[in-house]
Amino acid sequence: MRLVLLGPPGAGKGTQAAIIAEAHDIPHVATGDIFRANVQQETALGTEAKAYMDRGELVPDDVVIGMVQDRLTEDDAADGFLLDGFPRTVPQAEAFEVWLQERDWPLDAVIRFVAPEEELIARLESRREIEGRSDDDSEVIRKRLVEYRSKTEPLEDFYEERGLLRDVEAVGEIEEVGRRTLDMLASLERA
Ligand code: ADP
Predict the structure, then answer these.
(1) CA gap 9, 31 in Å, rounded
(2) Other beta carbons within 10 Å of 135
(3) Residue ranges per domain, the chain?
């Protein structure tokens, strides 16, 4: 399947992505992880992305789009993929839609993880203590949520109009949210 995950920072996209990717045997392509790996290896891409990430801002569209398209032309993505963190703006989604059409690669679903704002902030604050991610401090967390509301939320309508949006309640045990997601995908495959 070709899947996109949508949902604010803290909604648990990364955790659920691992569950879905394993169950469906598709690569989990997480743009945040790719950027963090590049920052760690001090590549040119990493240096460019770091300044934005540290401020909680989005990396420019052209940088992200090229990076994702390169990743998805690798062999392991030929029969499907799970995107986590892309697209994140309407221009990214538009460019990606054209690119997918050129390949005759329709998306199967865009999964939106839904959770209340207080829950998101609480999760991100506690993740900082565990993972020590430099963009998980309170100011930057707030900025990332604002960026999400202003730039990424409009994508919900974009995919709703295309009949692709599927909601999953992201509150509850990890396994429970995972089960809900896999059940939803199974019902799509039966349809
Ligand atoms: P989260 O969803 O918890 O904010 P991610 O790991 O997905 O975390 O992303 C971390 C940072 O990487 C973002 O705040 C942003 O700076 C950058 N980033 C990731 N994906 C994109 C994207 N599609 N477009 C622009 N910036 C991105």
Answers:
(1) 13
(2) 21
(3) 2-186
Give the DSSP letter of residue 29: E
How many angstroms is it from 23 CA to the middle of ligand 1? 24
Half-sphere exposure in the Cβ direction for 135 (13 Å, CA): 21
Burial class (CB in 10 A: 0-12, 13-18, 19+), 137: middle
The ligand 1 atom at the shortest distance from the C-alpha of residue 124 is 3
User: Whole-model pTM above 0.90?
Assistant: yes
Distance between CA atoms of 110 and 177, rounded to whole angstroms?
16
Ligand 1 pocket (Cβ < 6 Å) reads 9, 31-32, 35, 52-53, 56-59, 64, 85-86, 88, 92, 135, 144
Spell out the per-residue pLDDT of the chain, length 191, in tens.
999 999 999 898 999 999 999 999 999 999 999 999 999 999 999 999 999 999 999 999 999 999 999 999 999 999 999 999 999 999 999 999 999 999 999 999 999 999 998 999 888 988 888 888 888 888 898 999 999 999 999 999 999 999 999 999 999 999 999 999 999 999 999 98
CATH number corresponding to 2-186: 3.40.50.300
